[in-house]
Input
Amino acid sequence: DAGVTQSPTHLIKTRGQHVTLRCSPISGHKSVSWYQQVLGQGPQFIFQYYEKEERGRGNFPDRFSARQFPNYSSELNVNALLLGDSALYLCASSLDGPRGDVYGYTFGSGTRLTVV
Amino acid sequence: KNQVEQSPQSLIILEGKNCTLQCNYTVSPFSNLRWYKQDTGRGPVSLTIMTFSENTKSNGRYTATLDADTKQSSLHITASQLSDSASYICVVTDYSGGGADGLTFGKGTHLIIQP
Output
């Protein structure tokens, strides 16, 4: 059974450009969360979607947006990229609802975004 | 403000030795505590998840403990292997619900196993 899959694995963009990152949760998982992880830090919460509705939003500017599709896959969009957006972007899905209290979260391998 | 502090920041031990990583938290109200292993450039992988009533949980050579009174947790690694080299992240969940995911992440302990 496939785990959480993210694409692309690596990406290099120029300041001011737009980027779209994609995530496919584990089959049967209806919750998807997005995190930004800067080198040497723990993941920072960006968005959470459950049953195609936004359930939570972290402290990120409006340049960041996301959506969840009927098949529960998700996209994270970032507009007007800044150098500081360079990070590992992680997607996580859970089986038991938006908080994953029982089974926890399963993370994808992430997308490494470099903004130059 | 909810916080999770991990120590040490980094640790180097010889292959075959044991080690213990610490996690102190100020998260309220507490729901559960999780330990994740993260290899460089990869996503975190769950090791254990413990609720308020659980004191110890093992996963192979990994044993996590939780003291909900002192708000401390530890992750003990027995007979370390080179593949244990990674960052270990402590994550505490609260019951805050709406607006955020309710998870507070530590910065992790970077563990290096030397042959």
